[in-house]
């Protein structure tokens, strides 16, 4: 490495360390997941939130919420449910991370709906984006029972479906994996999307993927007509990669089918996570004004 470049990088790291030592204003982010008993399950998400909090001059405080505790029914006491919802309400922002399996999905859907209705900044990742779409279809389109075919193959409204190129019979090695191009598009009204502004490009980005299910392309027109904008799509503009609500309706409501946490760095935080923490700490408007 060039000695001058090495010295510059070292100065950046020393400055970062000083910045971390000086953090004293908290930002509370709730992680609503399925594996909250083992925080290492979400290690990349935690790191991306920490990187973003540092960039926002905030001290990250995590609130762990077991998604199934948000649900009503057997197996969850009233005390458990109240404590889980209290954390969601206390948080400045919420992340619904990726996952597999049916347990806790209805709790995540309830959480997405509450955040949407109450203006709570929310970032959904992979399954997190999918539950945002399910909730929106149920609440805004009136599609009772809207679901993913992963959880209910008989749903009358399959808004999330198995990808057509994936073999259901032979699950090994069938995921859509690795870096894929996401084209950043204007929203349904023709305005530049929040995702595009956070990424600082109107073209597209490479992000890493790990999923078998996707938003049903046949349902996209209805969802967009009801106000949920799909502003990131694959290179053929057929596969939904990013959804968001306009900022006139919500301060920060964004879902990503990919895993943006995998490319976060202490000096360059993941743009979707950075946007969440900016919104959660009340700094997003100022950041957007400074980064037109």
UniProtKB/TrEMBL annotation:
Classification via InterPro entries: Class_I_gatase-like, CTP_synthase, GATASE, GATase1_CTP_Synthase
Pfam families recorded: GATase
Pathway: Pyrimidine metabolism; CTP biosynthesis via de novo pathway; CTP from UDP: step 2/2
Protein's GO biological process: 'de novo' CTP biosynthetic process; pyrimidine nucleobase biosynthetic process
EC number: 6.3.4.2
GO terms assigned for molecular function: ATP binding; CTP synthase activity; identical protein binding
Highest taxon of the lineage: Eukaryota
Catalytic activity: UTP + L-glutamine + ATP + H2O = CTP + L-glutamate + ADP + phosphate + 2 H(+)
Keywords of this entry: ATP-binding, Glutamine amidotransferase, Ligase, Nucleotide-binding, Pyrimidine biosynthesis
Coiled coil regions in record: none
Broad enzyme group: ligase
All residue ranges annotated as the Glutamine amidotransferase domain in the record: 39-276
Family the UniProt entry places it in: Belongs to the CTP synthase family.
PANTHER family, A to Z: CTP SYNTHASE, CTP SYNTHASE-RELATED
Name under which the protein is recorded: CTP synthase (glutamine hydrolyzing)
Source organism: Heterosigma akashiwo (Chromophytic alga)
């Amino acid at each position: 490495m060039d000695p001058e470049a090495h010295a510059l990088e070292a100065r950046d790291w020393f400055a970062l360390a000083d910045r971390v030592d000086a953090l004293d204003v908290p930002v509370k982010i709730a992680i609503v997941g399925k594996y909250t008993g083992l925080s290492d399950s979400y290690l990349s998400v935690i790191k991306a939130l920490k990187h973003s909090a540092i960039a926002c001059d905030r001290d990250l405080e995590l609130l762990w919420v077991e998604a199934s505790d948000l649900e009503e029914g057997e197996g969850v006491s009233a005390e458990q449910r109240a404590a889980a919802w209290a954390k969601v309400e206390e948080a400045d922002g919420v992340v619904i991370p990726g996952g597999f399996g049916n347990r806790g999905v209805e709790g995540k859907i309830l959480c997405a709906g509450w955040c949407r209705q109450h203006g709570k900044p929310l970032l959904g990742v992979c399954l997190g984006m999918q539950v945002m779409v399910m909730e929106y279809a149920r609440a805004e389109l009136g599609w009772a029972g809207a679901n993913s075919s992963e959880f209910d193959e008989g749903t009358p409204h399959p808004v999330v479906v198995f990808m057509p190129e994936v073999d259901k019979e032979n699950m090994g090695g069938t995921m859509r994996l690795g870096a894929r191009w996401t084209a950043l598009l204007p929203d349904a009204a023709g305005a530049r999307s929040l995702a595009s502004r956070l990424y600082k490009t109107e073209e597209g980005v490479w992000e890493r993927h790990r999923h078998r299910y996707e938003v049903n392309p046949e349902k996209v027109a209805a969802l967009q007509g009801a106000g949920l904008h799909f502003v990131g799509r694959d290179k053929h503009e057929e596969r939904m990669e990013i959804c968001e609500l306009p900022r006139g309706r919500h301060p920060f409501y964004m879902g990503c089918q990919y895993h943006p946490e995998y490319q976060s760095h202490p000096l360059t935080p993941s743009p979707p996570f950075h946007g969440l923490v900016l919104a959660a700490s009340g700094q997003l408007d100022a950041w957007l004004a400074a980064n037109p």
